[in-house]
Design brief:
- The protein is an all-alpha fold.
- 67% of the residues lie in helices and 0% in strands.
- It has helices at residues 16-34, 41-48, 52-58, 62-74, 79-85, 91-101, 110-122, 126-152, 162-181, 189-204.
- Helix 4 packs parallel to helix 8 (126-152) and helix 7 packs across helix 8.
- The radius of gyration is 21 Å and the shape is elongated.
- The termini are far apart.
- Residues 17-77 form the HTH tetR-type domain.
- It comes from Paractinoplanes lichenicola.
Amino acid sequence: MRRGYCSGVTTPRKRRADRRGDLIEAARRAMVRHGTDGVQIKQVAAEAGLTSGAVLYHYSDLQDLLIDAHHAGMERFYELRVKRIAEVADPAEKLVVTVRSGLPDGPDDTDVRLLCELGGAAGRNRVYAALLTTLYDRQVSMYQTILEQGTAQGVFTLTGTTLAIARNLVALEDAYGYRIVARHPTLGVAEAEELILDYARGVTGHQLTA
């Protein structure tokens, strides 16, 4: 009788796509623990429970793995937010949902901590700088679309251009997100959300109930 069939259940090898997904999550954990610049292949391997050779089988270049790991985290702050607000009709509600979803879940939020690591390394790495620039521009465009829709429907009365307001909203997200993961003692997620919405109320002329 062939091994693996004694119980009538097969145990096939994990598919390559699944293994790469595991490695991406392991790389994310390693970067949080050791920093984007300091992470090594052996540290990723340790997080994945594999040998360095097994990691290199799937990713011959560590840099490619780290970039994929950053992409996985960044998806949350653009693609997933766009999908979420696509189901919301009211521009004011869209804006509130977008602000809330741009903040960390708490000080241990891995995605935001990785973005902070990426920001620190961007000055030394053109690829990381390009990733952050692309994410920033997409987020600004996302906010601009909401502001334009609200203005067209008579929901918002803007005090400035959609570009300037959108850039400020993204900047506030980044700043407060960093403070939250840095464990500021008096600034939590709820406080940050209210501070950003307070700015948004002033520039849109809408109460924007959280």
